[in-house]
């Protein structure tokens, strides 16, 4: 909601209330106008004021309706009322002017619409009209300065609020673009990069055609990693965004519908002869989208185990998944028996464009409002703990 909208509504209410106040002042001072004054001038002006306010009451409901022509007309009505006051009351028996505090509404309209500079100019015009009719008395000068300072302050606050809204909108656009880029990078890492890596590693070096295919796959893999990590090279277009976000590792059908999924059933599919899965006996419900993303993060962690935990002789590479259903969160621990992660290796991998940890795991958990932590001891394997709040 724009910060200006409440100001416009308040200004609309102010104009309506001060119009009623001007009518009440005329009724209360009617005897002073008839005793040596010109009641027809006073009544005629107040009638015009009421009609103008009623006809333009919707003009101050938003900046798009508050046109320059309306602002000029509003200021003209205010100045005319001030200048007609001594004509309607030559004996100066009535203290306030005919429009009274209604004139502040026209100044505030300039402040909200155009900022503090126009507010200062408009309040100076109103002040000059008051000084021309009432003289340089203490009360008159006090009221003029009060309106001038208040209008400038409100105009300045409105300008600052508009600048803050523009900055916030720009930050939200950048955040949305960053999230979309991270999502695309996760999809590329979990799909295309895995296939290219497999082709590169399994290419038959004895076969020239297969060797060439492996070399090309390796080049494309490195190019994609650079693209994910640092953006497109100069002169190239970024990857286009898909029409819809693909689902990560869709789970099996579940009776609870599309709004909720059983995380236990999703993770149970990860069990194999080299992956042991342990979980509570009952269901572990989680919002369907969060459950799929958490399952995909576990899949990325298992991919790391398969690629990095197994030794040259094929030994090792076993993994254990532990699912815990806590009162306010779900905790999934993935542990392996590999050689562990050397200090600084995760940061180095991210710098090289290998985004399995930073995007496929940590990025997913961050978007779910959760956390991902790693504990690794040389020669004793690695443990990844994934925590996701239930709501």
TrEMBL record:
<dbReference type="InterPro" id="IPR011712">
    <property type="entry name" value="Sig_transdc_His_kin_sub3_dim/P"/>
</dbReference>
<keyword id="KW-0418">Kinase</keyword>
<dbReference type="InterPro" id="IPR003594">
    <property type="entry name" value="HATPase_dom"/>
</dbReference>
<dbReference type="Pfam" id="PF07730">
    <property type="entry name" value="HisKA_3"/>
</dbReference>
<dbReference type="InterPro" id="IPR045975">
    <property type="entry name" value="DUF5931"/>
</dbReference>
<keyword id="KW-0472">Membrane</keyword>
<keyword id="KW-0902">Two-component regulatory system</keyword>
<feature type="domain" description="Signal transduction histidine kinase subgroup 3 dimerisation and phosphoacceptor">
    <location>
        <begin position="180"/>
        <end position="228"/>
    </location>
</feature>
<protein>
    <submittedName>
        <fullName>Sensor histidine kinase</fullName>
    </submittedName>
</protein>
<feature type="transmembrane region" description="Helical">
    <location>
        <begin position="12"/>
        <end position="31"/>
    </location>
</feature>
<feature type="compositionally biased region" description="Pro residues">
    <location>
        <begin position="231"/>
        <end position="255"/>
    </location>
</feature>
<dbReference type="Pfam" id="PF02518">
    <property type="entry name" value="HATPase_c"/>
</dbReference>
<feature type="domain" description="DUF5931">
    <location>
        <begin position="1"/>
        <end position="169"/>
    </location>
</feature>
<keyword id="KW-0808">Transferase</keyword>
<feature type="region of interest" description="Disordered">
    <location>
        <begin position="227"/>
        <end position="259"/>
    </location>
</feature>
<dbReference type="Pfam" id="PF19354">
    <property type="entry name" value="DUF5931"/>
</dbReference>
<feature type="transmembrane region" description="Helical">
    <location>
        <begin position="69"/>
        <end position="87"/>
    </location>
</feature>
<keyword id="KW-1133">Transmembrane helix</keyword>
<feature type="transmembrane region" description="Helical">
    <location>
        <begin position="145"/>
        <end position="163"/>
    </location>
</feature>
<feature type="transmembrane region" description="Helical">
    <location>
        <begin position="37"/>
        <end position="57"/>
    </location>
</feature>
<dbReference type="InterPro" id="IPR036890">
    <property type="entry name" value="HATPase_C_sf"/>
</dbReference>
<dbReference type="InterPro" id="IPR050482">
    <property type="entry name" value="Sensor_HK_TwoCompSys"/>
</dbReference>
<feature type="transmembrane region" description="Helical">
    <location>
        <begin position="93"/>
        <end position="111"/>
    </location>
</feature>
<feature type="domain" description="Histidine kinase/HSP90-like ATPase">
    <location>
        <begin position="292"/>
        <end position="390"/>
    </location>
</feature>
<keyword id="KW-0812">Transmembrane</keyword>
<dbReference type="GO" id="GO:0016301">
    <property type="term" value="F:kinase activity"/>
</dbReference>
């Amino acid at each position: 909601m724009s910060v200006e909208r409440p100001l416009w509504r308040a200004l609309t209410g102010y104009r309506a209330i001060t119009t009623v106040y001007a009518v009440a002042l005329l009724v209360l001072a009617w005897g002073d106008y008839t005793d040596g004054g010109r009641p027809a001038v006073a009544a005629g002006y107040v009638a015009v004021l009421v009609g103008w306010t009623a006809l333009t009451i919707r003009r101050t409901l938003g900046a798009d309706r508050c046109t320059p022509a309306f602002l000029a007309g509003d200021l003209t009505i205010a100045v005319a009322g001030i200048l007609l006051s001594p004509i309607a009351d030559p004996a100066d028996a009535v203290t306030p002017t005919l429009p009274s505090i209604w004139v502040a509404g026209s100044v505030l309209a300039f402040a909200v619409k155009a900022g503090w500079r126009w507010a200062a100019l408009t309040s100076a015009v109103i002040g000059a009209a008051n000084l021309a009719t009432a003289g340089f008395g203490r009360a008159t000068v006090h009221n003029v300065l009060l309106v001038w300072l208040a209008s400038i302050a409100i105009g300045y606050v409105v300008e600052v609020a508009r600048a803050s809204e523009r900055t916030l909108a720009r930050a939200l656009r950048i955040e949305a673009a960053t999230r979309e880029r991270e999502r695309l990078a996760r999809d590329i890492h979990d799909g295309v990069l895995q296939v290219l890596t497999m082709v590169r590693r399994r290419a038959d070096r004895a076969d020239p055609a297969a060797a060439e295919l492996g070399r090309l796959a390796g080049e494309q893999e490195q190019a994609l990693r650079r693209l994910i990590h640092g953006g497109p090279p100069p002169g190239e277009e970024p990857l286009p965004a898909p029409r819809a976000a693909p689902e990560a590792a869709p789970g099996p059908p579940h009776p609870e519908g599309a709004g909720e999924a059983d995380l236990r059933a999703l993770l149970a599919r990860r069990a194999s002869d080299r992956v042991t899965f342990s979980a509570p006996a009952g269901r572990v419900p989680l919002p369907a989208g969060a459950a799929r993303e958490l399952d995909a993060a576990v899949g990325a962690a298992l991919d790391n185990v398969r690629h990095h935990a197994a030794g040259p002789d094929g030994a090792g590479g076993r993994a254990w998944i532990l699912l815990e259903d806590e009162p306010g969160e779900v905790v999934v621990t993935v542990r392996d028996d590999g050689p562990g992660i050397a200090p600084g290796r995760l940061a180095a991998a991210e710098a090289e464009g290998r985004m399995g940890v930073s995007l496929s795991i940590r990025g997913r958990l961050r978007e779910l409002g959760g956390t991902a932590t790693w504990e690794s001891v040389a020669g004793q394997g690695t443990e990844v703990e994934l925590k996701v709040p239930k709501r």
